[in-house]
Design brief:
Bound molecules: 5-O-phosphono-beta-D-ribofuranose
Largest sheet: 5 strands, parallel
Distance between the termini: 49 Å
Helix content: 40-55%
Number of helices: 6
Shape: globular
Structural class: alpha/beta
Strand content: 5-15%
Strand order of the largest sheet: 2-1-3-4-5
């Protein structure tokens, strides 16, 4: 699927997109593919767009304002450097907004982390870790939000948690004495 085609889901699931991923630049695409893949593994559809708070503010605001009408339940906003996209999303929607500070740049994502996390009171952004861990966790946190009203998704998350534990237990078991 073209990154800008938006509304439909490209994963193997047949679901309508429930999560909207917006990112500030094409240079954020590889990182946010990890979020999209995680959602897809759980059968949850996502749309994604490149929309810049600084370079295409009108398009970004329109897309975010119309998200609820498209059936979106959670917005994931990813940006680097002076990262304002998540804040703009939270200012233009009452959907939960999860911010992913993109790594890279001279400050390795610290600038994006602070820009995303330090929202003034009244306009919340749930900020995840810098980089890939943040992208994957934004997807997992979206799934937890969706699972509040989706019991089969809840079961998948319980199984996923058990798999994570099993991996650590197996690694421990396989350690040479
Ligand atoms: C931000 O600036 C983007 O989200 C990206 O992480 C960073 C660099 O953008 P490009 O110069 O690669 O387009 O707006």
């Amino acid at each position: 699927m073209n990154v800008n085609s938006g509304v439909s889901c490209s994963c193997s699931c047949s679901e309508k997109a429930a999560v909207s991923i917006v990112m500030g630049s094409e240079s954020d695409k590889a990182l946010m593919q990890a979020a999209r893949d995680t959602l897809s593994e759980f059968g949850i559809g996502s749309e994604w767009r490149i929309l810049s708070a600084h370079r295409t503010p009108d398009q970004a605001i329109s897309w975010i304002r119309e998200a609820e009408a498209r059936g979106i339940k959670v917005i994931i906003a990813a940006a680097g450097l002076a990262a304002h996209l998540a804040g703009v999303a939270a200012a233009n929607s009452i959907l939960p907004v999860l911010g992913v500070p993109c790594d890279g740049g001279p400050l390795n994502g610290m600038d994006a982390l602070l820009s995303t996390v330090q929202m003034p009171k009244g306009t919340p952004v749930g900020t995840l870790a810098i980089g890939k861990a943040g992208a994957v966790n934004a997807a997992l946190l979206s799934l937890r939000i969706l699972a509040l009203s989706d019991s089969s998704l809840r079961q998948k998350l319980i199984a996923h948690k058990a798999r994570l534990a099993e991996e650590v237990l197996n690694a421990d078991k396989n350690l040479l004495p």
